Amino acid sequence: MNTTRPRKRATILDVARESGVAPSTVSRAFTKPGRVNDVTREHILGVAERLGYAPNPMARALESGHTNTLALLVPDITNPYFAGVIKGAERAVARSGRTLVLGDTQESAAAEEQLVRRLGPAVDGFVLSASRLPDDGLRRAAEVNTLVLLNRAIPGIASVVADYASGTRQIIDHLASHGHQSAVFLAGPPESWSGRMRWDGLRAAATDMNMTVKRIGPYAPTLDSGPAAADAVITSHATAAVCHNDMLAIGVIRRLVERGVRVPQDVSVIGFDNIFGADICTPLLTTLAEHTQDAGARAVDALIHLGQQRSRTVKSWQLPTHLVVRDSTGPSRLR
């Protein structure tokens, strides 16, 4: 069977020959447009477009010291929460004319550290989403890389985080309005900064409302961890369960239903993240929504801005959260 061989890519020499200029002039037209006559530059760009020529990014990196490539690392690429982050980051990168490299750290601090070390020379900076690195590890990484943290915050490094203090108070207020006096928090990975913030917020808000809240776990933030977490909820005799994320919450609901526990009549269940699927599971999941696409875009914009600064001023952003009330919460059975 005959196959069509790909056409040879146009080179800078091809563009120079067709334009009637030196290769160095073509190079300047792309990298230093101010040093080329406007008419000549437009002519060169037109020829380049007709020939399908694009500058070699590695060659440009050698000349400028910038690769125009950014890296986004996430703990679990299969977790729907990160779909919004990735989409927002990709949108901001495309708007800037740069390229995004995506890495999955597999919920492992060691894997994350290795990726940062390996990709560091090839990218202009990193957005680390829900980083599992310890604080000291992040500070070491920031010494040699431009970093923005997403869903994680430590002093001295730019970050984009959700307002968990307000969000967890919304959760407790909602449960209290239904007469719940006790709840359990099904915790996620011990390394999760957002998990700690959620627990701290729930505990503070519960104290103000004279509610009892107990932390159980940790559990992996996945559907498969739902059965073990649900069994712990049953043993606790609490009337409400607040889960580390929606994936865990959906797994908990499935197990409760299997064991004949009604949701929300016997136990109310709340998640975090408002992922795709939270509004199509049965019952529909009450969850704290974050603006993940905005967070991804904001983190990339901050990273680009940091890379352009001569003296880096560290700034952090806190994005709002809101409780989406659906069918998985209701009046306490003890009311």
From TrEMBL:
User: What Pfam families does the record point to?
Assistant: LacI (PF00356), Peripla_BP_3 (PF13377)
- Keywords, alphabetical: DNA-binding, Transcription, Transcription regulation
- HTH lacI-type domain location is 10-64
Q: Which SMART domains match?
A: HTH_LACI
Q: Do you know which PROSITE patterns this protein is assigned to?
A: HTH_LACI_2 (PS50932)
Q: Which GO terms describe its molecular function?
A: DNA-binding transcription factor activity; transcription cis-regulatory region binding
Would I find DNA-binding among this entry's keywords? yes
Lineage, top-rank taxon, reads: Bacteria
Spell out the protein name for this chain.
Answer: LacI family transcriptional regulator
Name its species.
Answer: Leekyejoonella antrihumi
